[in-house]
Write a sequence for this structure.
């Protein structure tokens, strides 16, 4: 890739930028008709939620992932700090469950866990890991994709707060400092 950039230069960069914009438009339109099931059994239209909030953070959940468990407090803190400013958080369980599995949590630190039957939303977005987060603005444009921060299971006092920084930038009317980061969670067992 580095050699290709050196040989091809700027046109490669422009091509990647155009394809990234096309992917954002495709993802935004792909949210239409997708629904999640709440703990109460009611259906939640993903597109309507995204268009009804200043920003929406869709965070993929796994009941068995130690990385997700380690980030529960940080997610609760983000929700507490940013929900009053118009950020909606959706915890999405797209994993397959068998009869022997424990029932997924109905509520996690004040956030309902929403069921993605058939992993339709995960597949549309290309989600692969627990803690992987997709942030959309009110126009349903994908503005950030990646991890909550730069840590896995052992959390330190000074993480790189990718998700928080991105959301705060969007709320301030500027682009996130990073639009893509690595997700550090367990591989989702998609249904």
């Amino acid at each position: 890739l580095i050699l290709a950039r050196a040989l091809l230069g700027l046109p490669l960069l422009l091509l990647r930028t155009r394809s990234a914009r096309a992917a954002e438009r495709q993802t935004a339109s792909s949210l239409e008709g997708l629904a999640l099931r709440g703990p109460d059994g009611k259906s939640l239209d993903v597109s309507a939620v995204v268009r009804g909030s200043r920003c929406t953070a869709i965070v993929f959940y796994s009941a068995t992932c130690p990385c997700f468990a380690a980030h529960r407090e940080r997610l609760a803190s983000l929700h507490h700090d940013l929900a009053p400013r118009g950020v909606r958080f959706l915890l999405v369980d797209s994993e397959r469950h068998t009869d022997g599995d424990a029932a997924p949590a109905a509520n996690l630190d004040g956030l309902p866990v929403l069921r993605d039957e058939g992993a339709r939303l995960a597949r549309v977005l290309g989600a692969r890991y627990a803690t992987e987060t997709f942030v959309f603005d009110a126009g349903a444009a994908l503005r950030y994709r990646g991890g909550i921060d730069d840590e896995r299971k052992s959390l330190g006092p000074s993480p790189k707060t990718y998700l928080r920084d991105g959301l705060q930038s969007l709320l301030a009317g500027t682009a996130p400092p990073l639009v893509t980061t690595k997700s550090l969670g367990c591989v989702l067992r998609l249904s």
